[in-house]
Structures are given as structure tokens and as C-alpha cells.
């Protein structure tokens, strides 16, 4: 008798559960946002906090609760070919992987761009090549993030190429060493030395600029190279999302990229004001003949990159120079 009562109670419980509206259970399930982690493999000075947080906020808010993006900072040691498998979303210094895909070294080429307008023209032309390479590695490009262009600090004014003759030169970061930036200056007579012996220094990125005002009395804005960070999404993850969620990521990437390029343009003007306020003489822009000499000295490295790239490298440079009116 007891077993019959338990059986009746069990059937009633099952019936009660079955009476819940299916739509209610479905909505409760749909209300749970898709969790995505954005891993930042950053190297050196970068707008990592501003850039990736801005993207995460835009994507999370734009998804109407269907996506939730969280951030993590990881050591920049992930092999490029593994990145899409390791991270749903990834943020990294593109040129770090130029050994794996030579086109990714494009933004670090010396004296190729002279303004942010030219840097954006180069990006427009190179973007399809970037996207093709990233697709081979299971990634979709959502946004680019420009570094502050590399520039010169010195203990004396730089008025012409002759001022580099026998001058002691260095660069301040690992980035410059890896890219071989010293070659441009050695070709016009500079001597490559350690940081502690230098009277001319090429500095890149955002870190430490104002600290250099204690050691150098002159600052020359040569726009040596405007490097890029990439923000990508794993293609496997991207294709697992709904069409609406994909469009949210694309729109958030587009808006973030626009905001970061605008911010970096404005940063240059603020930098000049802050540096001048510390008693450093700011030269921006420098003499045209100095820029022309540096551009000519850098050309062997630009052409070396193009030869290694083959037809694609030649096409990128030709299309870019045509776009900016420089032959």
C-alpha cells in the first residue's frame, strides 16, 4: 500500500513538472549569455587596458545580454598557429609573428608612413592580406590598434643627416632590436651603442616617454613606424555564434578600431605639449631633407621585405605608394 502511494505521488510530481510552460523554460535557458574570454598576449607598451576593455564593453552591451566578454592578460608566449585554439578572442602585437607570416611585419617597416593618414591608407591596402593570413590560422580580424609612432630623443638638435655622423645611437625597446631599426641610422653614419652611452635614441610605444625628458634635451617627431596590434576572434568560435552575435562582434571591432585610431592621433599632440612643458625642445615635423634622407636610408629594409614577400609585397607597396602619391 505504501509503495502504491509513493508511485501516485511520483506520477503527480512528474505531471506537475510537465505542466510548466515550455516557453518559460526556453527563455530561462536563452537568458544565459555566451561566455567568451578575451586573452591579451601583449608585448611592450600598448593601449591594452583601454583597447580591449573598450571592445569587451561594446560587445557585451551591444549583444543585449546574449554575450558576456571577460578579459585575461597572459604571457606573450603562445605560438601564432595555436592562438585560435587557445583563445576565443585574442589581442596581440602583430609584428611579433612576422617570422611565421612575413606580411605581419609590414607595420614595423622603417620610414614607410609619415602620418596617420598614410598609416591608415597602408592598413586599407594591407587588410585583405592580413585577413587571408589570419584565416589560414583560424582567426578573424576584428580590429587593429596603432602604437604611438617611434620617434627620436637626443642630447642635441637634429637639423640634418650630417648630425648623425659618428653620433652614438640606440633604441629603447626589444621591439627596435627585433626589427633591426638601427640599420637606418647606421647607414647614415651613426654608431650603434648601448642605452647608457647613447646621445640619440629611438623610442617606440607609450611607456617611459616622459622619463626620457630627464636625460635628453631634444625631441624629434619623425614617425619612424606606426606598428599594429590585432584583435581577432577564433573562426571556430565565430561560426558557433548566431548571426546577430557575429554582427555584434564585427560592429564592436569596427567602433573600437575607430576610437583607438582617433585616440592615438590626439595622443601625439598631447605628448608634444607634455614633453615641451618639461623643458625639452620639440621639433615636429623635422626638416624635410632629414626625413627624405632617413626614408632613403630605410629603403633597403623595405625592399628586402618586399622581395621576401614576392608578388604580394610588390603589390602592397605599389598600391600604397600610388594611394598616397609617392613614387
Helical fraction equals 40-55%
The number of helical elements comes to 11
Question: Using DSSP, what is the number of strands?
Answer: 11
Largest β-sheet summary: 6 strands, mixed
Strand content: 15-25%
Name the poorly predicted regions. 1-29
Q: Order of strands across the biggest sheet?
A: 7-6-8-5-9-11
Radius of gyration over alpha carbons? Answer: 26 Å
Protein traits:
disordered N terminus, 6-stranded mixed beta sheet, alpha/beta, 17% strand, 11 strands, 327 residues
Explain the overall architecture.
The chain has 327 residues and is α/β, with parallel strands linked by helices. Mean pLDDT is 88; it is low at 1-29. It is built from eleven helices and eleven strands. It is 47% helix and 17% strand. The strands form two sheets. A six-stranded mixed β-sheet has the order 7-6-8-5-9-11. Strands 2-1-3-10-4 form a five-stranded mixed β-sheet, with helices on both faces.
List strands and helices in order, with pairings:
Elements: H1 2-18, H2 22-30, E1 34-41, H3 48-62, E2 67-73, H4 83-86, E3 89-93, H5 116-136, E4 139-146, E5 151-154, E6 168-171, H6 174-179, H7 182-186, E7 191-192, E8 200-203, E9 218-220, E10 228-234, H8 235-240, H9 243-277, E11 281-283, H10 288-309, H11 311-324
Parallel strand pairs: 1-2, 1-3, 6-7, 6-8, 9-11
Antiparallel strand pairs: 3-10, 4-10, 5-8, 5-9
Helix pairs in contact: 3-9, 5-11, 10-11
